[in-house]
Amino acid sequence: MQNTAECVVIGGGVVGSAIAYGLAKRGVKPVVLDEGDNAIRSSRVNFGLVWLHSKGDGMPAYGFWTRRSADIWQQFSDELKDETGVSTHYVKSGGLNYCLSEAEFETRSETIRRMREQAEKDPYEARIIDRAELMQLMPRAQLGYEVLGASYGPHDGTCSPLFLLHALHAGLKKHGADYRPNSPALTVKPVAGRFEVHTASGVISTPKVVLAAGHGNMPLEKSLGFDVEIIAERGQILVSERVAPMGILPANGVRQTAEGTLLIGTTNEEVGYDVSTTPKASAAMVQRAVRVFPAIAGVRIVRTWAGLRTLTKDECPVYEESERYPGAFIATCHSGVTLAAVHANDLAAAIHQGKLGPDIEPFHGRRLI
Amino acid sequence: MNAEMSTNLITVYVEGKPLAVHAHDSAAGAALKAGLGYTRTSPVTGEKRAPYCMMGVCFECLMVIDGIPSRQACMVRVREGMRIERQTTVGGVEVWP
Amino acid sequence: MNRTYDFLVIGAGPAGMAAAATAAKLGVATLLLDEQPDPGGQIYRGIESRGQAGVEKPGVSQADSARGLRLTQEFRASSAAYQAATQVWQLEAGGKVYVTNGERASCISARRVLLATGAMERPVPLPGWTLPGVMTVGAAQILYKTSQWLPPEATWIAGSGPLLWLYAAQVIEAGGPIAGILDTTPKSNYAHALRYTAGALRNRAYLDRGMALQKMVRKAGVRIVKDVSAVEAKGDEHVSVVRYHAGGHWREETVAMLMLHQGVVPNAHATRSLGAKHRWDALQRSFAPEVDVWGNLSVEGYAAAGDCAGIVGAEASAVQGKLAALEAARAIGVITQEQRDVEAAPLRAELTKHLPVRPFLDQLFAPRASLLVPRDDVLVCRCESITARQLRDAVGLGAMGPNQVKAFTRCGMGPCQGRLCGLAAAEVIAAARGVGMAETGVFNVRPPLKPVSLGELAGLEV
User: Fold this and answer.
1) Which of A31, A75, A348, B60 is the most exposed, having the fewest neighbouring CB atoms within 10 Å of its CB?
2) Residue B40 falls inside a structural domain
3) Same-domain check for residues A67 and A171
4) Residue A304 contacts by C-beta under 8 Å, 6 or more apart in sequence?
5) Which of B66, B72, B94, B95 is best to mutate for the A interface (most A CBs within 10 A)?
6) Measured between CB atoms, which of A142, A260, A298 is closest to B91?
């Protein structure tokens, strides 16, 4: 096996794969180190939202970064389809956040107003709509009586996170990246301006290394001069049998996939690395979904999932180049699906050039210290 | 049908047609006896499918029973008057009436 | 309505019924849950209605039926509670078992839980196996047991294993037709099984019975084709032809029905969902949970008995169920460890009447290797219509095992949740990677174990 590489990307999930794909398209032949069949893979437990709506409250740069990704997602998806034949099922449909009481309606309105005021230019263009407008947007849907309205984000959309990863891996192969499953990086050592990446099957020497392994960054980052704390937050998702197209817009609690299954979610639980699903959480999520669409009560759930979000303290991404060890980069975020387009383009280009520019600078981890 | 069992017959409606079946039959068994051939179409491809395992493993016998879709017909015991119908909705069960 | 018991047994086959009756007799508050409307499991399916109606005639299944009826009667006579037509959909640490019954979901808590979920037929995808008119031998036998259903003329059976011969004999005995049997048992299996002869001879009755059944089928004039190396079902909307390869030639027969069988494997969906440790059993070519001599799983408070913990047959299953019940009674504090061991001694002796023959049978009826890796166009996942080719393509991208392959292809994501295709998909992936099954692994099992409606879930009291 080759023991030198132009670049090593540590992590083969949606974040690492998108960056590696972007690098590979730019002529780099990265080695991508991944875990195996049972990796804690956030893309496998993902609602598939490509979502602006509530991103970046308190950090407008995150709003603009997300908007940039949403703007180029269609092109990114088309390109993956052309190159690999795998569709990500991306649709920019607009997205909703339902309000089921006056209190929810007021809180939601306040959030939208506040986020709009934080930036000079509003990246979201989200607005509050009432029940009548909801019914116009979804003429076939039978809304529960408690649905008073929603916030509506016109740039929101959905994809299949599973097929996104499939397409990225197919893209990696097509562009000659060296994908190595079952080969997690054990340690990374800076040595004379280069990096030695140690795996169970040998050492790879490289001038450039990208840490994009989600929770797996934690044991590796200190030796490269990074200090980014990642918090594991459990999210649970329920998946139903296939249902005939319902003509509903995606929302963060219920949506229909291209295959027809309903996704119902999700929880925010700090329970360490426990990825079990709980009937208690299932019941709570389902109760809310059924309040939105009472007619789905007869639909059957076939699978429940739990996964771990990779959250930073302010829940916004961190991108950095190591000050002590230039050539070492870190990328961590919990919105790897939404940001996949911008990771494969803007971020990959910046890493390729060896300089994280002004768009990316605000995401430096020093803000969290 | 065996003579000893004929005392224990009930009537079900398979695709609307009455059929006398043994009281211990499953709905899938009744569909088979009715000569239904296929009992559902694949929601993915539309291909015709029929019960395969008869013990709740394969889910090929999903049928509409007494108006309720996606029931494992091999696991449902017949009742007098039960309506047993093929599940042929393309793309999945209908939610809106 | 949520309830609490000392001992909860899941599955009313031989292991579950024996366990529940044994525990209840020792004074343990016991509940037996089962998915079927009547007790008996698959082996003793419909045993009470057959017995009571006097339908069972002397013949090939008489001894089995008598044993099953006795076991069922002992269970019915015990103080164990029994809840039929109940689907278990989630098992949680600490003995919390979530069920649906009559469209209501509830939670049952128990200090000890025994999984006795039995066996299922090995999934072996072949061209055309999704056509109507193709079903498993086990499925046909269930129809025979529940309502004496006999197959149409021009029914062919293809495969290998004791159940295949038993079913053919039952049909013949009942005056039904079996046109032919395509026996896929490789010739070499006979030679390989010889090394286990000593064990087989200790349980001679199993061999005698097997030979008697084969003789009976042959005598009835059923066409038997030996050493069949490939089978395909053909037809437009219903199977009409079986095509097979034997003796260096492809041949075809017109069929009205085709029944398939390649032995049975543990129905380990429930034990896997718990996250209990499992092992690859090379001789039985299947995954089974790791258990100690009492059936205890690696998850505290949970145990497994009978075929779901490794194929042992109905009689040994019942004995294992009794052993697990003794252990549960000890753990709960109803009997001492000494009492448990005294009671267990004759049961362990009884196991030696049934277990030594197993390696011989496992080897003799080991599935033909080439049948386990279907060609590219064969559907492996019936629910999502995923072909062997799609699985191989995912492996080509670097997917190492069933869970990443599932994420890339949707194989195993339909309503059967990978129960049926799981082992078959793993075989395809293992062969494509050129590694063993133990390294390849299987799908992680996600709750719910059976689909549960949103309305049922919403009504759950937790």
Assistant:
1) A75
2) yes
3) yes
4) A236, A237, A238, A239, A277, A282, C446, C447, C448
5) B95
6) A260
Tokens of A34: 């991944």
- Chain A interface test: which of C278, C385, C404, C419 (most A C-beta within 10 Å): C404
pLDDT tens digits, one per residue of C135-179: 999 999 999 998 889 999 999 999 999 999 999 999 999 999 999
Could you tell me if C159 and C262 are in contact, meaning their C-beta atoms sit under 8 angstroms apart?
Answer: yes
Cis check: omega of the bond before A279, within 30 degrees of 0: no
pLDDT digits (tens, 9 = 90+) for C114-129: 999 999 999 999 999 9
Query: Within a domain: residue A245?
Result: yes
**Which residue in the block uniquely carries the two structure tokens 């990696």?**
A172
Q: Could you give the CA distance from residue A242 to residue B70 in angstroms, rounded to a whole number?
A: 10
Say if C175 is an interface residue toward chain A (CB within 8 Å): no
Residues A222 and A322 grouped into a single domain: yes
Under an 8 A CB cutoff, do A289 and C447 touch? no
Contact residues, chain C, for A277 at CB < 8 Å: 90, 446-447
pTM as predicted = 0.96
> Does A268 lie in the same domain as A124?
no
Tell me, what DSSP letter sits at residue C57?
P
Could you tell me which of C126, C230, C242 has the C-alpha nearest to residue C186? C230
- A256 domain-assigned: yes
Contact A182 C415 (CB under 8 A): no
Structural domain boundaries enclosing B56: 3-85
Residue contacts between A and C (CB atoms, under 8 Å): 121
Inter-chain CB proximity B51 and C46 less than 8 Å: no
At C334 the three-state DSSP class reads coil
Give the one of A243, A293, A298 whose C-beta lies nearest to B92's C-beta: A243
Sign of CA dihedral A122, A128, A134, A136: negative
Chains touching chain B, criterion 3+ CB pairs below 8 Å: A, C
Q: Which of C56, C58, C52 is CA-nearest to residue C38?
A: C52
pLDDT tens digits, C200-218: 999 999 999 999 999 999 9
Tokens for A237? 């998702």
C96: β partners: C92, C109
Section C419-425 average pLDDT: 96
Task: Return the axis-axis angle of helices C402-409 and C388-396, rounded to nearest 10°.
Answer: 110
In whole angstroms, give the CA distance from residue A285 to residue A256.
15
- Rounded to whole angstroms, the maximal C-alpha distance in chain C is 65
Chains that touch C (3 or more CB pairs under 8 A): A, B
Task: Inspect the interface and report whether the beta carbons of B59 and C54 lie closer than 8 Å.
Answer: no
* Residues on chain C touching B57 (C-beta within 8 angstroms): 120, 267, 416, 419-420
Domain boundary among A311, A340, A358: A311
Q: What is the ipTM of this complex?
A: 0.95
Choose the mutation target among A242, A290, A293 for the interface with B, i.e. most B CBs under 10 Å. Answer: A242
CA distance A358 to chain C (A): 36
At A259, is the pLDDT very low, low, confident or very high (cuts 50, 70, 90)? very high
Q: Please indicate, yes or no, if residue B90 is contained in any of the structural domains.
A: no
Residues A177 and A136 occupy one common structural domain: no
Which chain C residue has its CA at the smallest distance from A165's CA? C408
Reported as a pLDDT band with limits 50, 70 and 90, residue A1 is low
User: Which pLDDT does position B85 carry in this prediction?
Assistant: 97
A265-278 as b/e: b if 16+ CB within 10 A: bbbebeeeeebebb
Strand order in the sheet with C230-234: C230-234, C241-246, C249-254
Q: How far is A210 from chain C (nearest CA, A)?
A: 20
Rounded to whole angstroms, how far apart are CA atoms C394 and C396? 5
* Alpha-carbon distance C113 to nearest alpha carbon in chain B (angstroms): 22
Domains and CATH numbers, chain C: 3-120+265-335 (3.50.50.60), 123-262 (3.50.50.60), 373-440 (1.10.10.1100)
